[in-house]
Each structure stands twice: as C-alpha cells, then as structure tokens.
Amino acid sequence: MRLKSLELNGFKSFAKKTTMEFGSAITSIVGPNGSGKSNSAEAFRFVLGEQSMKSLRGKRGEDLIFGGTKMIVRGNRASVRLVFDNPSVDGRRLFDTLDFDEVMLERVVHRDGVNDYSLNGSQVRLKDIVELLAQANIGASGHHIISQGEADRILSANNRERREMIEDALGLKAYLYKRVEAERKLEKTQENMKQVESLRREIAPHLRFLEKQVQKIEELQQLRASLTDRYQEYLKRESVYLKHSKEELAEEKSAPEEKRRVMEARIQVLRDELSKAQEGETSSAPLITLEQDMRAAAGERETFLRDLSRLQGEHAFIEKRIADLLRRAQDEDTATVPLRTVRAFISSLSEKVASAYSAGALEAMRSALQEIGQATEHFASIIRKEEAGELPELQKEFGEKKKLIEDLEASLQRAEVTEKGIRERVNRMRKEMEDARAAGRDAERELFALMNDRSAVEKEILMLNSRETNLLREENEFRREREEGAVLIGRTILAYEDYPIQTADVFNEERSVQEDRRRKLEKMKIRLEEQGLGSTDEILREHSEVRQRDIFLAREVEDLVTSAGSLRALIAELTETLQTRFAEGIKKINTAFNDFFMLMFNGGGAGLSLVAERKRRYARSIDEGDVESEGEEDEEVEEGIEIEVHLPQKRIKGLHMLSGGERALTSIALIFAMSQVNPPPFLILDETDAALDEANSRRYGDMIEALAKHSQLILITHNRETMSRAGVLYGVTMGADGASKLLSVRFDEAVAVAK
Fold first, then answer.
1. Rounded Cα distance, 266 and 446, in Å
2. Where are the alpha helices (DSSP H) in 78-220?
3. What structural domains and CATH numbers belong to the chain?
C-alpha cells in the first residue's frame, strides 16, 4: 500500500476532523446522494495542489471551508492532510528525494483565500509540492483522479489536452518540467546575452576614445618618466639643501642670540643702577623727609620729657602734702582747716548774729542763739570731715600720677629709640648717596661698552635672519613646486626621499646648478601641459576599468553562449527522451486500450494516433512610439492525440456518435489502459460506473481487480458489484447537524464475524 491515510478538517461538508485509513488495495466510499462522499475525492485534488476552483466545485477559496449550520458554527479554515508510505524497496523510494519512511502533505485554506502548504510539518511552496508529486507519477492533469461527471473528460478534451493527459499518465511530467525549466533558462540566457551585448555596444565608443587617449599617454610616457625622474632629483636635492641649511642656520644663531640675551640682561641691570643713581642726585626728597621725621621724633621726645618733669613735680607735691596730713593727724594743734571752709562758717555766723539782734524778743534771741550753737557744731563737724576726707583723695591722686609718670617714661624711651633709628637711617642714606654717585660713573662706562658690543651682535643676527628669510622663501617655493608637480605628474614624485643622492653631493655643488635644473623642469612641464593630458592616472585608471569591464562582458557572452549551447543540448536530449518514451508509451497504451475495449464491448477495436495541427500565430512588436502592432504571420505545429474506435456491428466514424454508455465504457477502457501501462500510486474513480449495466458492471469489477495489482484504488460508487470488490467500505452520511460523518467496514473482519 502506498496511500496510508487522508485527514479532513473543516473541508466542505466535513465539519469535524475525519480520517480515512487506506489499508486495502481497493477501498470503496459509498453513501446517498448529497452526503458528501464526492468531497473526499475533491479533498485529494485539493491537497495535491489543484488550483482550478471549477474542478473543486467552488468559486472562491472560502467555498471550500465548512459554511456552518444551525447547530454548528462555520469554520475559519479548512485543511486536508495526506500521508504516504515511503519505504525503501530495493534501494528506491516512492519519493526518492525524501529520506523519510512516511511523507505527509498538508494544505490549509483560510477565509481570506490564503493557502499554506507543508511537507512533513515544514512550510513549502506549491512548486515544491508539484515537483515532488511528479516523481511519483502524480501529475497536475489529474488522470489518476476521475471525479463525478468527468469519466469521459479524456474523450471530450481536444487533441492537445489529451496528449498532456497521456504524458502525465506515462510519467513524463518530470522531463517536461525539466525541459520547460531549461527553455526558461535558455530564454533568460538569451535575454542576458542581448543585455550584455547591448552593454558592450554602449561602452565601445567610450572605450575607443580612451584607447586613443592611452595611445597619446604612451607616447608621452618617456617624457613623463624623464620629468618624474628629474623632479624627484630636484626635490631630493632641494629637500636635503633646505634641511641641512636650516639646521646649520639654527646652530649659528644659537650663540649670538644667547650672547645678546645675556647682554640685554646686564644692560637692564646697569640701567636700573644708573636710574637709581640719577634719582639720588636729582632729588633729595627722601632724605629731607627722613630728616623731617627725625626732627619730629626729637620734638616728640622733648614733649614727653617736659610732661614727665611736670608730672614728677606734681607727684612730689602730693607726696609732701600726704606727709603733712599724716603728721597733722598725729598733732591736732597744728592741724589746719581750708580757708574757704572758715569763710563760709564766718559768713553763716554773721547772718545768724544779725538775725538775733534784729529779733528783739527773748524767745527770738534764744532761738537765734540756739541756731548759732547748731551752726558752730556743724562747722566743727565740717572741720572733722575735711581733715578726714582729704588724705584718701590725695593718696588716690598720688597713684594716678605715678601711673602717668610710668607711661610717659615708656613713651619717652620709645621716642628716643625711634629718634635714634631715624638718625641712623639718615646717616646711612647720606653715605649711600655718596657711594651711588661714585658707582654710577662706573656703570655708565660699562653700559656704553655693552651697547656697542650688542650692536655688533645684532648686526650678526640680522644677517642670519636675512639668511633665514631667504631659506623660508626657498622652502615655500619648494612646497609650491612639489604640490604643482604632484598635480601635474601625479603623487609618484612624492617618493623623492628614496632618490639616491648623498648629502655631500648637494653641498659640493654650486647653487646655480640647482637653479638650472628648476628652469629645465619648467620647460618640460610646459611641454607636458601643452599636450592637454595633465595627470594621466585618472585616464589610465578609467581605461583599465572600462577595458576590464569589456573583457568581463566578453567573457560573460562566452559563458552565456556556452550555457545556451548546454541548455540547447539538454533540451534536445530531453525532447528526444520524451519523444522516445512517449512513442513507446503510446504503443503500450494502444495495446492495453484495444484489449480493454474489446473486453468491454465483446469485440471491436480502439487505438490512439498522433496528429499534427498547424496553428497561425501573429508576432507582436512594439515600435518606437510604444504602440503595439501585429507583425508577420507565423505557423506553429502542435502534436495531439486522436482516438479511433470501432464498435462491433456498428459503423462509428467519430466519438461524437457514441451513446452515453458507450462513451463511459470507452473512457474507462482508456483510463484503465493508461493506468496499467504506467501505474500511478493510487487511482480515484468517482462514480465512473454509474452508466454501466449489470453485465458491464461485472466486467468493470474484473478490470478493477486486475488494476488493483498495480495501483491502490479508491472507488466512490453506488454499484453493488463494485462494492463487492472492495476490501474496506466507508459509508458517508449526512447527520442531523448538517455535517458529513463517516462509517467504515472491513469485509474480511465482517466475514469473520458473520461466520
């Protein structure tokens, strides 16, 4: 068995997942009309890559998805999975390119019409599926799947379509695919050849122009090489001259510049000394100021001395007064009272006496006398207080005076020190001014001598700077010459450092010789510029690129010619193989077709013949105005297959004269003949026996059993005779929910149960 199982999920009327196992050589699918049994045959077409919606009885991809019923919602996708056994038998497999014992094909269609194809779980293209099936003699023409109403499709087809069906049945599709692919590659190769040749024609004028330019360049190569060599020599000599001249000049300048730097430093020192000396001679203001400070310090010292003398006298007086008070305190008879106190007492007493005299009365006199007595007592207490309070005040004043004397003595000492310091500074400044006058005369003489020496050094440096300026000008001229040469000749001249010249050769040569070289270079550059070529590197590079491009394109043309020759040889070989195998296959099909035809009709005969048809074809062309027009008329020869039949006891001249039953028997005979000559892995017949009577049904059954020895058969039928030849019977019914359901019976198991 090659066909293992078919799994439907949401496909047409099969709402739920349904699986058919094909474990018998003949499997029969039965069921009432409208139950969905023919949908299983269309599921085979669908999973094998059928693209015609008409063959699948639909208009759009969503027509293949379960549309839903009142009890079951509609599906969003439909999938069909087909599983093949692919064991290795004698080193060969049904699908040789797949090293798997089981091959699973699956196709899924979505509501938006998108289809997905997978092979053993991996997503692939439809082209991959078609090429894989062609290896197993399962072609796109569907000769191995005869759906309901298509039994006589091979009879109704035109000669060209009939040939394609037979080529498919003979397993020639793989060769046809290879030939079509080779023809497509040949056409593409020829287009590429035209494009490459067009590119060569486009670059040819430019290449010729560049070749002329290169020819001119080659004529000037000698001049250019000579100029390059002379340029490198000139630049090398100039580079060596400038480098060593700059080093020599820098070395020569270092000593005078250092000498000038030292002289300028010494001159600045001498100028500072002279300035100081001149300031001392022309202005004695600092000394006068200092002498004024000295006189001020002396005046301050004398002031402190006078104040100190005064305080010392007051201090001695207070000290003598304190001694007197202490002595009087010890001797009351000699104690004294201040005059102001006595005068105040006498004045008060006189007033009291005058008041007593004026009173007249005794009581008044007594009162006046009493006041006099009180005043006397009061005067006595004042005397006591005066004598007791004067001594502490004097002692306090004595202490204060002593403190002032100590402060004045300290200030006097500081004033004396300040006066002494200023006096010393005045004396020192007077001496320095005398010394400066003497030193200024020596510094002036040294300054004049140094300035004369510096003038001589500056003249030397000026000459060296002049040489440096000339060197800088020559260096700028060198850079300009180098850049100009690089632009004119190319950057190859910049390798002048490697030019073999010794340093001694440069300095042993007169400078005028180098100038002569430069003038000669100018003349050679003018000659080169007059040619109008300038830098030729770009032209040579462009010529090389265009030349290489042309060589590459020429090599591409050669490769394409070789490839086209190989493809033509392959096409010729495939065409010869197809013709040979097709002729042999037609011969075998003719024999089998005649045998089956005679068996079905109890005599007569049938056969296939090759016919050639000429068809006119008009070549279309497009002019420069993009207007399409018909060109010359051409003829194309197409080969087809014509069927000839001879019924027993009837004179039939064409297939159109056959009845429905006769057409069915003829198509069945041809289909079985094609299947027997090159048996496909499986053959699906959908009610191809519907038009057969009982006798022909038995013959049909015998033919099925004979054919089952070569191919696995799946029969969709209502015919009891056909059912009896099956090993497994599947029944398809339409449930109350509007979805197809599947029942199965294995006849060998059923017979065993019945016994």
1. 10
2. 126-135, 153-156, 159-169, 173-219
3. 1-136+682-755 (3.40.50.300), 261-487 (1.10.287)
Q: Both ends of the chain: CA-CA distance in Å? A: 28
DSSP β-ladder status, 115-119 and 682-686: unpaired
- Spatial separation of the C-alpha atoms in residues 42 and 456, rounded to whole Å: 120
Query: Residue 27 has which token pair?
Result: 């499997």
Amino acid at position 609, single letter: S
What gap in Å lies between CA 262 and CA 362, rounded to an integer? 123
Count other C-beta atoms under 10 Å from residue 56's C-beta.
20
Least confident segment among 77-91, 265-279, 343-357, 698-712: 343-357
pLDDT tens per residue, range 387-442 = 556 677 777 877 887 888 888 788 888 888 887 888 788 778 767 766 666 666 67
Sign of CA dihedral 345, 346, 349, 355: negative
Q: Residue 498: is its pLDDT beyond 50?
A: yes
Instruction: Say how far apart CA 16 and CA 102 lie, in whole Å.
Output: 24
Rounded to an integer, what distance in angstroms lies between the CA atom of residue 98 and that of residue 140? 20
The helix/strand count (H/E) of the chain reads as 16, 14
CA distance to 356, 372, 741, per residue, from 375 (Å): 14, 5, 162
How many residues are there in the chain?
755
Q: Say if residues 77 and 23 touch (Cβ distance below 8 Å).
A: no
The Cα–Cα gap between 389 and 412 comes to: 35
> pLDDT exceeding 90 applies to what percent of the chain?
10
Q: What is this structure's pTM? A: 0.49
Residue 714 to residue 684: CA distance in whole angstroms: 5
CA angle 128, 133, 139 (to 5 degrees): 115
Q: Angle at which helices 173-219 and 537-601 pack, to 10 degrees?
A: 170
What's the CA dihedral at 717, 722, 726, 728 to 10 degrees? 30
CB 7 within 8 A of CB 81: yes
Query: Do the beta carbons of residue 677 and residue 592 sit within 8 Å?
Result: yes
* 687: Cα separation from own chain's centroid: 65
Residue with the larger pLDDT of the pair 656 and 63: 63
**Contacts of 470 by beta carbon, 8 Å cutoff, 6+ apart:** none
pLDDT given for residue 755 in this prediction: 44
DSSP for 508-542? TS-HHHHHHHHHHHHHHHHHHHHTT----HHHHHH
Q: What's the whole-number mean pLDDT along residues 509-528? A: 84
Confirm if 37 and 677 have CB atoms less than 8 A apart: no
Can you say whether the dihedral through the CA atoms of 310, 316, 318, 321 is positive or negative?
negative
Token pair in block for residue 42: 């269309």
Range with the largest mean pLDDT of 152-156, 368-372, 483-487, 719-723: 719-723
For residue 498 the two structure tokens come to 């490697």
What is the distance between the alpha carbons of residues 604 and 24, in angstroms, rounded to a whole number? 34
Cα–Cα distance for residue pair 384/341, rounded to 1 Å: 11
pLDDT-derived band at 366, boundaries 50, 70, 90: low
